[in-house]
Amino acid sequence: MRSSCLLLLLSFFCVAQEHLLQESHTTENLRGVSAVSANVIWASGTHGTYLRTTDGGKTWVATQVPGAEALDFRDVEAFSADEAYLLAAGPGEQSRIYKTSDAGKTWSLQFTNHEPKGFFDGMAFWDRTHGIALGDPVNGSFELLATKDGVHWAALAPEVLPPAIEGEGAFAASGTCITVQGDSNVWFGTGGKAARVFRSSDRGKTWNVSETPIVHGAESSGIFSISFRDAMHGLIAGGDYQHPEKDEANLAYSADGGVTWKLAGIHPQSYFSAVGYVDPSVPTGLLAAGSTRAFSSDTLMRDKWMVVVETNLNAVSFAPPWNAWAVGPKGAIMHWSFGSMNRRRE
User: Fold this and answer.
1) Which CATH architecture has domain 2-337?
2) What backbone phi and psi angles, to 5 degrees, belong to 146?
3) Which contiguous run of DSSP H or E holds residue 20?
4) Exposed/middle/buried for 329, CB within 10 Å: 0-12, 13-18, 19+?
5) 25 CB contacts (<8 Å, ≥6 apart)?
6) Does the first or last residue of the chain, that is N or C, have fewer Cβ atoms within 10 Å of its Cβ?
7) H or E segment at 328?
8) Non-local CB neighbours of 213 within 8 Å, separated by 6+ positions
């Protein structure tokens, strides 16, 4: 029974992978994307720009948050056609969090980082009112903020975290350097002098940290993206964005909740800014994107990628049934369709 199910899933990848470049109506550099469903998707980028579609990307509407024209929105987390959060990344007060509950007609500024050394990298949500945001280290500790009501944000005590290594930071390349799962699990990946994964099972009250085999050492290298399909199985991806063609230790996986990590055997492994599972409900299917190309595979056990798309992309988000959207420079938006999951599994 299991083998026939696997063959069916493989057939989706081998036969039904399609990708289509969509018209975004903007030339801004897009860094964040959040697929609520197969119809509702939000995206974000430079100069205070955000985009929204309610028809699966047939029609995108791009506009700016008033008063935020100088900001770079590196992450967006959406929950409906009306409700979304935006995270701006930048030094000091350029790092901010906004929210809309009326499809962007109005935006409320929920948090401004008044720490001059601060720099936000990404955010993630367990549900529409409980979320967590990550910032680069300040005074030797990563900055973490949390909201319990979807309105107010408060800093987590730095002493609950293992200290950052000098020269260690996080990357705001795609808004996916931090991820959550279930009701209370959260992980984030780091880069620079170290490539480590911090993990918590109680929404950030306590933390542990693990070493990973991802390439690091240079300021431009490390873990750029992290994704978990359940409490045990996760992916990390990255590399060196200044040397994106290098086929080195850029993709790894965990089967024990992020305690240990093993390098994936799929090649080539160029720089990846985003990675994720096509459908977290099944153990097959991943998509990775970076500044040179996007890759997809039905399994980590392959030695080569199944599909390679030669394009520059920054971030990826997934929506059932087996859909993915990726965004990149100059307003690039690409949609992947991996086939319908409505067919009966044997």
Assistant:
1) 7 Propeller (2.130)
2) -140, 150
3) strand 18-22
4) middle
5) 51, 60, 61, 62, 331
6) N
7) none
8) 195, 249, 252, 261, 262, 263
Per-residue pLDDT of the chain (346 residues; tens, 9 = 90+): 333 333 333 334 443 457 899 999 999 999 999 999 999 999 999 999 999 999 999 999 999 999 999 999 999 999 999 999 999 999 999 999 999 999 999 999 999 999 999 999 999 999 999 999 999 999 999 999 999 999 999 999 999 999 999 999 999 999 999 999 999 999 999 999 999 999 999 999 999 999 999 999 999 999 999 999 999 999 999 999 999 999 999 999 999 999 999 999 998 999 999 999 988 777 678 999 999 999 999 888 788 898 889 999 999 999 988 899 999 999 999 999 886 433 333 2
Place of tokens 């007609």: 105
Q: How far apart are CA 93 and CA 103, in angstroms?
A: 25
Is residue 121 within 8 A of residue 134, CB to CB? The reply is: yes
Domain limits, the chain: 2-337
- Cα–Cα dist 328/314, whole Å: 5
Structure-block tokens of residue 141:
């500790």
Q: How far apart are CA 329 and CA 346, in angstroms?
A: 42
> Which H/E stretch holds residue 13?
helix 2-16
Q: What is the DSSP letter of 262?
A: E
- For residue 260, give the amino acid letter: T
53 and 63 Cβ atoms separated by less than 8 Å: no
CB 197 within 8 A of CB 176: no
* Tokens encoding 321: 């049934």
How far apart, in Å, are the Cα atoms of 82 and each of 47, 62, 97, 107, 128?
21, 15, 17, 11, 12
Q: Please report, for residues 92, 160, 247, the alpha-carbon distance to residue 298 in angstroms, rounded to integers and kept in the order given.
A: 41, 38, 20
